[in-house]
Specification:
Blueprint: E1 3-10, H1 14-27, E2 35-37, E3 45-54, H2 58-69, E4 75-85, E5 93-100, H3 102-117, E6 131-137, H4 143-155, E7 162-166, E8 168-177, E9 180-190
Helix pairs in contact: 2-3
């Protein structure tokens, strides 16, 4: 049985991705190769990472998504705020925050978790923190370099809050390559 590495996510409009590209250009320290910048045109809002699943689970996952979005009307989110996990002194992940109708987003994410648990996917124990990943810092980066990147993040002005509608959730395939992950949409469930 073919294994498919996949996740459920909300796609972003091109104008939001263009804004993320501009932001990345501001943040990139010159000549830094130990930071893996995410292609801004493949950035998405992940709701649930599923990992490698059997190909025959794709249809049940799609059905669970369709059930989770029933009765959920489209809503609006916005991209704003800049930060790092776990913090600005030990940067591992550079992210942009997501705000707006967060209660509707959290409800949708919980409905997905609940429906997918019925298919054997273990619910996430950590609290859902909506964010868009801009970069990951490689393991070999020194503490000083991490702190210097944190300083750049702290000093970068990111004021251009961009709103976007959430009208669907997508089941995405993630194919890992040397150049990075390649994402493709497998199925979608529209909010009505």
């Amino acid at each position: 049985m073919e294994q498919v590495r996949c996740f459920i996510a909300i796609g972003l409009p091109d104008e939001v991705k263009a804004g993320l590209k501009q932001l990345q250009a501001q943040l990139k320290p010159g000549g830094q190769t130990s930071i893996k910048w995410v292609d801004p045109y493949s950035v998405h809002l992940t709701l649930k990472f599923l990992g490698s699943v059997d190909g025959d689970k794709i249809d049940p996952i799609t059905a669970a998504m369709a059930e989770a979005v029933q009765g959920v009307s489209p809503f609006s989110l916005k991209v704003e705020g800049l930060g790092a996990f776990p913090n600005l002194r030990r940067v591992q992940v550079v992210w942009v925050g997501v705000s707006g109708e967060e209660d509707k987003l959290a409800n949708l994410q919980q409905r997905l978790e609940s429906n997918l648990a019925g298919l054997g996917f273990i619910p996430e124990k950590r609290r859902f923190t909506p964010h868009l990943t801009l970069a990951r810092v490689r393991d070999q980066v020194s503490a000083g370099e991490r702190e210097a990147l944190g300083q750049i993040i702290a000093e970068t002005k990111f004021e251009a809050a961009r709103s976007f509608p959430v009208e669907a959730v997508n089941l995405m395939r993630s194919q890992l390559t040397r150049e990075g992950a390649i994402y493709s949409q497998i199925s979608t469930a529209e909010l009505k």
